[in-house]
Amino acid sequence: MSKNIDLKDLSHSLRSQFQGLQGRHPGQWPLAPRLLLAVGVMSVVIVLGYFAYWQSQFEEQQAGARQEAKLRTEYTTKIAQAINLEALEAQKLQVDQYVARLEKQLPSKAEMAALLSDINQAGVGRGLQFELFKPGQVVVRDYYAELPIDIKISGNYHDIGSFAGDMANLPRIVTLNNMALSTAKDGALILEAVAKTFRYLDDEEATAQRVAKAEREKKDKKGKKDKTPTKKGAGK
Question: What is the largest CA-CA distance in the chain?
C-alpha cells in the first residue's frame, strides 16, 4: 500500500520549523533551519576562499604572464643586438679611423705658427707675391678653434691655380673661402680670399667651452620652462 505525501502538511511542517528560532541556539533548531544554515555557511566559506586564495592565484598568474611578455621582448631585442653587433663594431672601427685621420690634420695651438709659415711658403714657392697676409680673430667652437686669414696674392693664372691645389694638399686642413679674382694694371691676376685653418682647443679653452655650453643649455631649459603656460585656478 503506497503512501501519498500531503504537500500541504509538508509545507506547514517546514514553516513551523522556522518559527520561534529567535533567541535559540542554532544547535537547538529543527532539522530544516539547521540544514539551511549549513548551506549558507558553506557558501560563505566558498566565496571567502575564492577571494582569499583563488583571486591571489589569478593575480600571480597575470603577473607571471606580464613578466613573460617582458622577458620575451628583452630576449628579442638582445638577439637583434647580437646579430647587429659585428656590423656595429665594423662601423665603429671605420668612424674611429676617420676621426683619427681628422685629428692628425688638426694642429695644436703651438703648431699654428708653423702652419701659417707653410701657407706663406706655398705661395712663395709658386712665385706669387703676397700683398696681404693677415691672420684674423680666432673663433672658438665647441670642439675646435677656427683661424681666418685674409690673403691677397698676385701672379699668373696657372700659379694661382697651383697654389689653391697646394692648399688642399697640405697635411693640415686649410680651406679657401670668399675668393675673388681681379686683374692688376700690369696684367697680373690678383686673388683675394679668406684662408681658414683649424686647430685643437687647449685644455683651458676646452674647459671654458664646456662651461659655456652647460650655461647655454641651462638657460635654454629655463626659457622653455618660463614659456610653458600655467593653468589658472577656476572659480575663485
Answer: 153
